Amino acid sequence: MYKVDINCDLGEGFGNYRLGEAEEILQYITSVNIACGFHAGDPAVMRETIKLALQYDVKIGAHPGLPDLVGFGRREMAISPQEAYDMVVYQIGALQAFLTTMHAQMQHVKPHGALYNMATKNQALAEAVAQAVYDVSPKLILFGLASSALTEAGEKIGLQTAHEVFADRTYQSDGTLTSRNEPNALITSGEQAVQQIVQMVKHGKVTSQQGIDVVLRADTICLHGDGEHAVQFAQLVQQKLLAEQIVVKAFQ
Which residues form the signal peptide (predicted)? Predict the structure, then answer.
């Protein structure tokens, strides 16, 4: 029996700015990554997103990013491992405070954007992120790019680690995601995206932009909540997985 978790980045608005349709998409996912105020999100948005996640019984995770609202946390910054550690601890703490007041639990931590991508390749940053998660609580699950420095660091330190794959992103032959600066970074066809998902979950591989099959492990699938047709796409993914007899279930 095949099974997989579906996660989505939400709570990425702030102030009067709203991004994505959180309540609608929560019906089709099993884990949610909530922005913690650095790349997006604010206290009110964090609280509201937690409330909705609890309503739909979706597992809650922190989504720490670089302190770059203007760039949405997708621009690389020259940070030290210590700075990465401090940023992750700080943002986990912000979300945990709200969860405590709402008598809820945090399941996982998934870095965002440039911080995530930097930690997939840079061993020192990966270890700093994993250490930050472990020091807050060794019971937390670390979400990281499948077969990357980040998942390796999480497993090495003793964290339960979920290998993440992406539905709407293309891959390079080294297993990394194609840069968003490239024209072919995103998969815009829903059918093509779900075919890639099935290939990753059932066969443990993805075909890179270079035409090479890359072996990977698919514990959790990332759907982006800020896309133009995010809700319809999430619904399509769920329907396709069920048709392929793949159980959609939170990572354990």
Answer: none
φ and ψ at residue 13, rounded to 5 degrees: -100, 175
pLDDT band (50, 70, 90) for residue 219 = very high
* Residues 131/158, Cβ–Cβ less than 8 Å: no
Residue 224, pLDDT score: 80
Number of CB atoms found within 10 A of residue 221's CB: 27
Predicted TM-score (pTM) of the model is 0.93
Cα 81 to Cα 167: distance, rounded to the nearest angstrom: 29
Q: Which residue in this structure is represented by tokens 């509201």?
A: 48
H helices present in the chain, as ranges: 22-25, 43-55, 81-101, 113-121, 123-136, 149-157, 190-203, 230-243
Give the integer Cα–Cα distance in Å for 144 and 35: 16
SS3 109: strand
